[in-house]
Design brief:
The chain is α/β, with parallel strands linked by helices and 422 residues long. It is built from 14 helices and 17 strands. 48% of the residues are buried.
């Protein structure tokens, strides 16, 4: 394979992970050692979920074997240790995102619940005629909650277009923000296009008009350094399972002055100050948004995943994934009938393509028999599929443990698809 061309922007100051480092990291992920249909597993479905290193698996097991208890009110040793684990994980997330205070970190089930929380709580102040501004490249999780809010309130949903290359134009954002805009919601990294959006610039445009910004960060923290104060955003949502952590745990970062003024999302235990049959008063941050027994083991696993990623360095992971994407983007051009969907200059981690005359599901099935795991479908982004005039794409997405050999296996598998359907 020829050397990769620098087709994507990014952090060029740091060297990519060496081949030897990647091989050492792969040994940390037990699932990667298996064979699929008699062939070594090539896992290229990281945008859907990442695999888990021993450090995360062991942290969750250790919690259940040693510390398992409900949190915050137990006065016994297990309860105190579990509470320390849980709140320690919150502080670990705070440092990872560079939030100002631990109380700005709310644990949720994932990005989807985090966005629903904001749509329900912040959205309670919206009225008929108010506007919510999103983009054409959003995941359903950053579309449907706002549509539900529109149905409840009579507000309007406005959409910023995406270019043929898969990029946003800041001028379109500037035109889209008007006197009735109440919130902007935008993805940090597109799960279909791999586009890295200029979030800092979008936030500046919105704040100039006094409009808060929510960022769907599902695809970003595993691939890019994230600094919520540097970005200036008001809300940031991400999921643990896309960051080499457990499923069922996620984070909503929110600026304290905004969260403080929002009503609860759910009612129940832990989120209250006092309860009587006449009136309930609510707890402060972040407890007000964490009703019920929390996912303590998930938080513990997420903290372990953050430790693991930080030890490698998200800046180096960024360079590694950009390098893999550049290699893959060039290599697939050797496959007859391939068209890449999303060619913006600033991309990372995700390669979506269509193969002329072959449905994405058929491509995925043949690749699976070659041991290559990819995703095929609309990727919970049906409006974006419609924008590009395709029912589905074949999506390969990279992680810190992927190698150049994985790119070669993907391309070889695509040639096999062409042979089958040729």
């Amino acid at each position: 394979m020829r050397p990769a061309q620098p087709v994507v922007a990014g952090n060029a100051a740091k060297p990519p992970l060496t081949d030897l480092e990647v091989e050492r990291l792969r040994a940390d992920f037990p699932i990667l050692g298996q064979r699929i249909h008699g062939k070594p597993l090539v896992y290229l479905d990281n945008a859907a979920t990442t695999q888990k290193p021993h450090a995360v698996l062991e942290a969750v097991t250790r919690y259940y074997e040693r510390d398992n208890s409900n949190v915050h009110r137990g006065v016994h040793a297990l309860g105190e240790r579990a509470t320390a684990d849980y709140e320690g994980a919150r502080e670990r997330v705070r440092r990872f995102l560079n939030a100002r205070e631990a109380r700005e970190i709310v644990f949720t089930r994932g990005t989807t619940e985090s966005i629903n929380l904001v749509a329900a709580s912040f959205g309670a102040r919206l009225r008929a005629g108010d506007e919510i501004l999103i983009t054409h490249m959003e995941h359903h999780s950053n579309i449907v909650p706002w549509q539900l809010l529109v149905e409840r309130t009579g507000a309007r949903l406005r959409v910023v277009p995406v270019s043929d290359a898969g990029a946003l134009d800041l001028a379109d954002f500037e035109r889209g923000i008007g006197p009735r805009t109440r919130i902007v919601a935008v993805t940090h990294v597109s799960n279909v296009l791999g586009t890295v959006n200029p979030v800092h610039d979008i936030v500046e445009l919105a704040h100039r008009e006094g409009v808060p910004v929510l960022v769907d960060g599902a695809q970003a923290p595993a691939r890019l350094p994230v600094d919520v104060q540097g970005l200036g955003c008001d809300f940031y949502a991400f999921s643990g399972h896309k960051l080499y952590g457990p499923t069922g745990i996620g984070v909503l970062y929110g600026r304290a002055e905004l969260l403080d003024g929002l009503p609860p999302y759910q009612g129940g235990g832990q989120m209250i100050a006092t309860v009587s049959f006449e009136k309930t008063t609510f707890a402060g941050l972040p407890a007000r948004f964490e009703a019920g027994t929390p996912n303590v083991s998930g938080a513990v696993g997420l903290a372990a995943a953050i430790d693991y990623v930080d030890a490698i360095g998200t800046d180096r992971i960024e360079v590694h994934e950009r390098d893999l994407l550049a290699r893959a983007s060039e290599a697939v051009t050797s496959v007859p009938g391939v068209r890449v969907i999303g060619t913006a200059r600033d991309r990372i981690g995700v390669l979506s393509l269509v193969l002329e005359g072959v449905h994405a599901h058929d491509v995925g099935t043949i690749l699976d028999h070659e041991g290559v795991a990819i995703r095929a479908g609309h990727h919970c982004a049906q409006p974006l599929m419609e924008r590009y005039g395709v029912p589905a794409t074949t999506r390969a997405s990279f992680g810190l443990y992927n190698r150049r050999e994985d790119v070669e296996a993907l391309v070889s598998g695509l040639h096999r698809v062409v042979q089958v359907f040729g």
